[in-house]
Amino acid sequence: MPHLITGGARSGKSRYAESLALAHPGPVCYLATAELRGGDAEFAARVEHHRRRRPAQWSQAEAGRGLAAELLRHDIVSGLLLIDCLGMWLMRFFDEDGDFDAAGFEQERAELLAALEQARGEVLLVSNEIGWGVVSVNAQTRCFVDELGRLNQAVAAVCRRVTLVACGLPLVLKGEA
What we know:
Elements: E1 2-7, H1 13-23, E2 28-32, H2 41-52, E3 59-62, H3 67-73, E4 80-84, H4 86-91, H5 102-118, E5 122-128, H6 139-158, E6 161-166, E7 169-174
Parallel strand pairs: 1-5, 1-6, 2-3, 2-4, 4-5
Antiparallel strand pairs: 6-7
Helix pairs in contact: 3-5, 5-6
Keywords: ATP-binding, Cobalamin biosynthesis, GTP-binding, Kinase, Nucleotide-binding, Nucleotidyltransferase, Transferase
Catalytic activity: adenosylcob(III)inamide + GTP = adenosylcob(III)inamide phosphate + GDP + H(+); adenosylcob(III)inamide + ATP = adenosylcob(III)inamide phosphate + ADP + H(+); adenosylcob(III)inamide phosphate + GTP + H(+) = adenosylcob(III)inamide-GDP + diphosphate
Family: Belongs to the CobU/CobP family.
C-alpha cells in the first residue's frame, strides 16, 4: 500500500513520513536514496542529520539507481518501508557534468512503478514538490524539474494515498484522511 508524501524544501515532509513510520507496529526499513558526491560538506551534514534522527531499531539500506529492486528486496508483509527521497534518487541519473541518462531513468522508473503495484507491506515515498516556481534558464535544472514532476505524477497515480506537507502540516490529496 504505497503512500506518496510530497512537499517543498524544509516543509516537514520527511519528519511527517518518519512520524508515520514511528507509529507503525511492525518492523521499519529506511531506504535512503541520496548519493554523496564531490566533497559537498554541507550536503553530507544534511544526510548525517537525517541519519541521526532515525531510531536505532529501524533497519537501514542505501538505494542506488535500482530502487525498484531494493523495494522488492525489502518488501515485508507486516513491515513498513520508508523511501527518502525520490528527488535524490533522480539525481543519480545525472552525472557530475549534469548529463542526464534518460534511457536508464525511463527503464528504472517503469520498474519502480511496477514494484509499487506489487508491494505487499506499507511503503512511504518522500518526494520534493518543486514545480511551483519560475521556469529556470538552466537546461539541466529544467530537465530535473520536468522529470521529477512526471515521476511524482506517475507515482501518485499508483499510490492509494498522497499527502502534501506544507509548513509541517499534512494535507491529504488522495485517499482517506
